[in-house]
Specification:
The protein is of the alpha/beta class. Helices cover about 35% and strands about 20% of the residues. The strands form 4 sheets. The protein has a 7-stranded mixed beta sheet. Strands 2-1-6-5-7 form a 5-stranded parallel beta sheet, with helices on both faces. The radius of gyration is 30 Å and the shape is elongated. The chain starts with a strand and ends with a strand. About 30% of the residues are buried. The structure holds S-adenosylmethionine. The site of S-adenosylmethionine (SAM) has 20 residues, from strand 5. S-adenosylmethionine (SAM) binds next to strand 5.
Amino acid sequence: MRIDIMTLFPEAVAASLKISILGRAEKKGILDIRCVQIRDFTDNRQQQVDDYPYGGGWGCVMMAQPLKSCLDHIIGDAGERRRRVIYLSPQGKTFDEAAARRLAAEYDHLVLVCGHYEGVDERFIEECVDEELSLGDFVLTGGELAAMAVTDAVCRLVPGVLSDEECFTGESHWEGLLEYPQYTRPEVWEGRSVPAVLRGGNDAEIRRWRRKRMLERTMEKRPDLWDRRELSDEDEALLAELLKERSRRPLEEPVVCRPVTEADVEAVGLLFRQAKNYLRKNRVDQWQDGYPNEDTVRGDIDSGEGYVMTCGGRVAGYFCLSARPEPCYDAITDGKWRYEGPYTVIHRSCIGAEYRGTGLSERLISAAEELTRAMRIGSIRVDTHRHNEPMKKLLRRCAFQFRGNVIYQVGEGHDPRRQGFEKGLK
Ligand SMILES: C[S@@+](CC[C@H](N)C(=O)[O-])C[C@H]1O[C@@H](n2cnc3c(N)ncnc32)[C@H](O)[C@@H]1O
């Protein structure tokens, strides 16, 4: 496969295409990637490639003549080939894996034209370009990044560039699915284990597990791809299994709620970090200011208000249950608390990443309710960030009700707005 990239910045483009896998394939003679300076083909002494747009307006437009002369030179040099001239443009069809496969299969010479400034004279596109490709619905300052993306995606599909066809046929987008999750050593990292099936060595089980994960993550991350799929009978059976598994994964018994001790501090710190990552990923500006941390847990140990949830002996969840009134709750707006008299407050509740979807959160809330009852207190309050949808859903599932908005003390630059929820205990 020969690729000529017509650009005003050939050195910059070449620097990133002549290395690693593509660089090695070029040395083996499988690829021939050339970056051609458009400026070398001007017919004026100043080597000017652009000029003002007719009709006025902002910026400059690349002239047709240097582009056409550059293209003629490339074609003359390459000779008769299955060729496609592509202009990288925000107005083109969005480039995707299907386009990469088509270009790799149907052509052995691609000429990629990189525009700059306001773009290129329309007459060059009409006269010389076979198709326009876009990297996405946004505007770049030049076509170089798009040309590099197209070159990379096409070239890795050229036979011999990767060691084996399987290197790309199993990957995301090959058959309209996203790839399964990948893991490498160590076996446990930040408290997260590599799934047992991948360590078990049973090839059939591994294949099955991977296929399920492909279906699962495509459904979750890319519903647009998912909706376009025809499901095979085998995929449908796997999907049914998956939905059943997801409806409730079993918890390792016994599930116990007990006061936190110094020996648990590190494990709880890990739960906090996982919860912070989860909130950050979901763009919830809660717990992003350093709070809570291991010192917060030590404070809870001193006040006797911290509790861990353990599953099969492992620390799996944490919360603080305080019978001290929360001062910011007195200033509730847009509603009011319903239950008079003493109440408990749940703070810092979280569960480990691997326990999501197991029902542990509900068990944590009911443990807090039991403790509140044991204190002979009739209601519980809790607040959560106004964008923390998973927490709000959980509270509603556990029969808490929204009462109004409160402002919590948080680090500077973070969003202090919280929603207050309440539940009366019979
Ligand atoms: C600033 S852009 C010109 C945009 C043009 N005036 C328009 O509004 O359609 C300059 C050059 O960057 C390249 N470019 C910009 N966005 C691109 C995208 N999304 N995909 C591919 N190339 C792009 C094109 O080669 C284009 O000629």
